[in-house]
Design goal:
The protein has 259 residues and is of the alpha/beta class. The protein is built from eleven helices and twelve strands. 31% of the residues are buried.
């Protein structure tokens, strides 16, 4: 992309013209990451690649900064309200506006993190379709930032609000040997559990991962594993790492049992 120039007033009052990349002027700084991968499918989603040989054994939420390195295979994930990680000075905005100050803070925050699950920007069936699509795009860009700037193993979070949107939501993930689901909000009723099981089925019609990581806070894994039985039957390893809320629920149940 060609460069433009801008006038700059120096300390001595003199005026000089300095070059400035046009992508900065047009708020297209995200292209420094998107252009390093392929654009895939009908929506031109940037492709992600993940070929992890080992998998996460603990999932730390974005807000749990002290737990990012709890184990050698801890993964940072974003299964919280969007406002927790996607405010005005959130990582995506820092990338989009090439905010050097906040990008430096995020680089320091995540330095040394080995695994990251792409952000779970909320997608809903009753909001504008274009907003859902944009949130999916944001997750890809942030994933690429973690890949190129932090050197982390980036595992794509699988989410789509409707069956129709599943047609493109997984475009560009064909090169990932591991993917991630969250059961958050899906275990409350039989209807929601059936919906998640259907989403797993739709995913496995298009992707062929070797492993699926699951963010789950239930006190035991029996019912969760049932939702991923199709994956297990296909020889895909289903991994349910420990996390803070899951540990609390397990301890609470153990305490009631022993009382």
């Amino acid at each position: 992309m060609r460069k433009s120039t801008v006038k700059t007033i120096l300390d001595d009052g003199s005026v000089v013209r300095q070059s400035k990349e046009l992508k900065k002027l047009l708020n297209l700084s995200y292209l420094q990451y998107a252009n390093r991968t392929q654009s895939c499918g009908q929506k031109d989603l940037p492709a992600l690649y993940c070929k992890a040989n080992e998998y996460p054994d603990f999932l730390a939420l974005y807000s749990e900064k002290s737990l990012y390195r709890k184990t050698d295979h801890t993964a940072v994930c974003f299964y919280e309200f969007d406002s927790e990680f996607d405010g005005i000075h959130g990582l995506f905005n820092a990338i989009y506006y090439d905010d050097a100050k906040h990008l430096a803070k995020y680089k320091e925050r995540f330095q040394g993190v080995q695994y990251v699950i792409t952000p779970d920007y909320s997608e809903l069936g009753d909001i504008h379709v274009i907003e859902n699509e944009y949130r999916l795009f944001k997750a890809r860009i942030v994933g690429l930032w973690f890949l190129f700037e932090i050197g982390a193993n980036v595992i794509p979070n699988i989410t789509f609000p409707t069956e129709e949107s599943s047609d493109f939501a997984m475009d560009g993930l064909e090169g990932c040997s591991v993917i991630c689901f969250s059961t958050k909000g899906h275990m409350e009723s039989a209807e929601k559990r059936a919906r998640l099981k259907r989403n797993v089925h739709l995913t496995l019609e298009k992707l062929y991962p070797q492993a699926i990581v699951v963010y789950d806070v239930c006190r035991d894994n029996r019912e969760t594993l049932l939702l991923f039985s199709e994956a297990t039957e296909k020889g895909i390893e289903v991994i349910i790492p420990c996390n803070t809320l899951k540990s609390r629920n397990e301890i609470a149940v153990a305490g009631r049992t022993s009382a």
